[in-house]
């Protein structure tokens, strides 16, 4: 496995372009003439990595599925991700003024517009999914309603939102590694997991395959957060498009703080190995997922 | 039509109880142990009129549909409505401290929790709909994906959210009656319309019937807002559970200000008559909808 050469850079850039074009299509559907449409467009097109959409597409391709079939799904994932960033950046939450090197939504527009732009992107995600489901010609809309339910559960009060609540509640309070793992699984992990799981639902994956993909996504989700913590200590602010050292300044609970930098790096490696092992049941079709797993801890931004 | 005696008071109280119990069920599903769950529960159970859920059920019953079949749908409508109130009340928007006589969510909890509770209720609405669709045993999940798409479109950046954007943008700026109508159709009308339209979708209503119901809901939606404006001038703050005279104080564009109190009352009557006329194609099964139309302008809160 993974001994063939897989051109990840090209794969990421191709998919990024595909996703960006599809997102443009959804966002320019008559919306940019309004201030709310402009705010939505501004934040979505601010140059994200598109990790969740790409994971979704790579998972679908691993299962023999079609890029185009899961493209709406991948756009919905990015809409939810962007909404969560806009709301997390608000003065009442992290009060961040920069995101990916640009002013955050509430700085560029205003607070009310940022709250509503987040609301609108969350709503748009479900509209995209429901529209796709209604138009689905392959006769099984139940798969799509399952996807909508999975997505809502991952994003909702038992998932991402609870993670954000804990992130705020724990700021400045020392917690142990297990609590930090649960926090991150909720805050970022659940949406990364559903990026893969929703593709598996659309592709009618078997239980075994779903299980393997969940082990994969759960481990890279956590590794992604550990890598984020490491980058906040030793990353390049210019490449990251945001300040570093901020976690320590804010008294945030991080793996770097709990395990030390070397410990955190070792932990991230372990997680990625677990993710790669879970992919052993797949052939070379999973090379994209394998390459993404390595990228998660090797990335510079 | 409407000459029979319809006991609206009893009908409203029965349905309110039914909806409240169903909402309790969704909200107490393990959520009240968390702060976010408590905030969601607090705002949803703060004693609303449940107008949208009741309209949804009344429309379904008019079409020979079943109360229980649209109960999840009516709960989803109330979740979206409550989320919109929580976010509208935020300091960055209307900065209201009282809602239905109680502290608003951000006052009772805090701003971050209120933003996230709104987000969580919006997400929960789609989870309820998707779960219902997935479990739907009557073989047509496409009806449900259509409902989800309708709901998202009504609540989103071309609907309710754009209405809120205009409401903020127009504060203190004089606008004409047409602009005010469009604002209200977006801000409150679209969700009232979809309360009825989604029931029609679930009940597989014909085009003609859908059209009649749309005329009905569009007119009562606008009448509801006109009545709100009138209540803000001459309502009883104790019955309303909120201060009166606030629209004038804030320089809000209202029908009372544009048309005068008598003119606004006349306009509301005209709208209700149009709504009632649209129901002429139905027999006594529509008596609940007829009674609700009258209630919209006769209510004291």
Automatic annotation (TrEMBL), chains A, B:
InterPro entries: Isoprenoid_synthase_dom_sf (IPR008949), Polyprenyl_synt (IPR000092), Polyprenyl_synt_CS (IPR033749), Prenyl_diphosphate_synthase (IPR053378). The keyword Metal-binding applies. GO terms for cellular component: cytoplasm. It comes from the Bacteria. Keywords: Isoprene biosynthesis, Magnesium, Metal-binding, Transferase. Pfam families: polyprenyl_synt. Its cofactor is Mg(2+). Gene3D superfamilies: Farnesyl Diphosphate Synthase. PROSITE patterns: POLYPRENYL_SYNTHASE_1 (PS00723), POLYPRENYL_SYNTHASE_2 (PS00444). Belongs to the FPP/GGPP synthase family. PANTHER family: FARNESYL DIPHOSPHATE SYNTHASE (PTHR43281). This is Farnesyl-diphosphate synthase.
């Amino acid at each position: 496995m993974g001994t063939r050469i897989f051109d990840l850079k090209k794969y990421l850039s191709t998919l990024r372009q595909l996703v960006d074009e599809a997102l443009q299509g959804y966002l320019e559907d008559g919306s940019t003439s309004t201030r709310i449409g402009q705010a939505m467009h501004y934040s979505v097109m601010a140059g994200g990595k598109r990790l969740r959409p790409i994971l979704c597409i790579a998972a679908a391709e691993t299962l023999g599925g079609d890029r185009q079939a899961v493209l709406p799904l991948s756009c919905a994932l990015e809409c939810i991700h962007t909404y969560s960033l806009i709301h997390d950046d608000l003065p009442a939450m992290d009060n961040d003024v920069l995101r990916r090197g640009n002013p955050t939504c509430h700085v560029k527009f205003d607070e009310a517009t940022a709250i509503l732009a987040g609301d609108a992107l969350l709503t748009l995600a479900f509209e995209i999914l429901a529209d796709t489901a209604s138009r689905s010609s392959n006769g099984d809309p139940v798969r799509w309603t399952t996807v909508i339910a999975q997505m809502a559960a991952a994003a909702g009060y038992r998932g991402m939102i609870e993670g954000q609540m804990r992130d705020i509640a724990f700021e400045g309070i020392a917690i142990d590694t297990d609590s930090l793992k649960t926090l991150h699984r909720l805050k970022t992990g659940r949406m990364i997991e559903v990026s893969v799981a929703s593709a598996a639902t659309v592709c009618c994956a078997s239980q075994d395959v779903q299980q393997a993909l969940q082990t994969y996504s759960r481990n890279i989700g956590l590794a992604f957060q550990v890598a984020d913590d490491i980058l906040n200590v030793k990353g390049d602010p210019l490449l990251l498009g945001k300040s570093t050292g901020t976690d320590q300044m804010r008294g945030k609970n991080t793996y770097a703080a709990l395990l030390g930098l070397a410990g955190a790096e070792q932990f991230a490696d372990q997680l990625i190995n677990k993710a790669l092992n879970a992919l052993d049941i797949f052939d070379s079709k999973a090379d994209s997922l394998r390459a993404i797993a390595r990228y998660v801890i090797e990335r510079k931004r």
